[in-house]
Write a structure and sequence with these properties.
Blueprint: E1 9-13, H1 17-22, H2 28-49, E2 53-60, H3 68-84, H4 86-91, E3 95-99, H5 107-119, E4 127-134, H6 136-152, H7 163-168, E5 180-183, E6 202-205, H8 215-226
Parallel strand pairs: 1-2, 1-5, 2-4, 3-4, 5-6
The structure holds 3-methylbut-3-enyl trihydrogen diphosphate (2 copies) and magnesium ion.
């Protein structure tokens, strides 16, 4: 596959952990645990393929609505993941990052996040970004507040607010927009994920639940992506008349 036909940045809405567990008569949280294996395998494969970024939706601002026990389990699982995957991150030259209202996460998560980010900051391969306590609307609001402060301080005039400035105020200004947005477990919705950044992403929905989404499924998505024609509002070259 030539590089033009391969996405630089893949973003994934990892869904269906609960359904995976339910179909096996297991508690929901077993699905979350099994999903970690998919994270490892998919991240390793994206690193091997030389992609620039993989962004995984791990916890939304709306997910606090879930039962307290499930939320607590997810936070502890995240803490465990951040510690246990450090070796894997190093071995694969992965730079770890996170986006979201991170300061609202429990301090034991924030501490491990910071350690993993710090430890991997000089790595030069794939950027693995976890979206945690993330909401697309929240991100747009947070950027708007930052711009409003700049205007109030007299550093920016309202006429200077353009897409470039707006992007500089998002959580990860350096991230390229996702080329491919994958959602697992069949749901046809974006659930408040990267609302600004996915404006021209190709969408691929897999019926497979996240714990079963492994290397082979990733390649299916890449194969589908390679056949898409991206036009960004323009015309395909063959349709351009003189
Ligand atoms: C995705 O799986 C994981 C998170 C949102 C944290 P779900 O827990 O949403 O699984 P389903 O959708 O109930 O099957
Ligand atoms: C989206 O999954 C959020 C994450 C994957 C973290 P949800 O399961 O929370 O989304 P809805 O509720 O089905 O839209
Ligand atoms: Mg779900």
């Amino acid at each position: 596959m030539d590089d033009g036909r391969r996405p630089r940045h893949i973003a994934i809405i990892m869904d269906g952990n609960g359904r995976w567990a339910h179909s096996r008569d297991l508690p929901r949280v077993r699905g979350h645990e099994e999903g970690i294996q998919s994270v490892r395998e998919v991240a390793r494969e994206c690193a091997r393929l030389g992609l620039i970024q993989l962004t995984l939706y791990a916890f939304s601002v709306e997910n606090w609505k879930r039962p307290k026990r499930e939320v607590e389990f997810l936070m502890r699982l995240l803490e465990r993941f951040l510690v246990s995957e450090r070796e894997e991150i190093e071995e694969n030259n992965i730079r770890f990052a996170a986006i979201g209202r991170l300061h609202e996460l429990p301090s034991f998560v924030v501490d491990e996040l910071n350690r993993t980010i710090e430890m991997s900051k000089h790595n030069t391969g794939l950027t693995l970004c976890l979206a945690l306590n993330y909401g697309g609307r929240a991100e747009i609001l947070d950027a708007t507040r930052r711009i409003a402060s700049l205007v109030r301080e007299g550093k920016v005039a309202p006429e200077q607010i353009d897409e470039t400035l707006f992007e500089r105020c998002l959580y990860a200004p350096e991230m390229p927009p996702p080329d491919l947005l994958i959602r697992t477990a069949g749901e046809m919705r974006v659930s408040n994920f990267l609302l600004w950044q996915i404006s021209y992403a190709e969408i691929y929905v897999s019926s497979v639940c996240w714990p079963d989404f492994r290397r082979e499924e990733l390649h299916r998505a890449l194969e589908a992506y390679s056949k898409r024609v991206r036009k960004f509002g323009g015309l395909q070259e063959t349709n351009v008349e003189g």
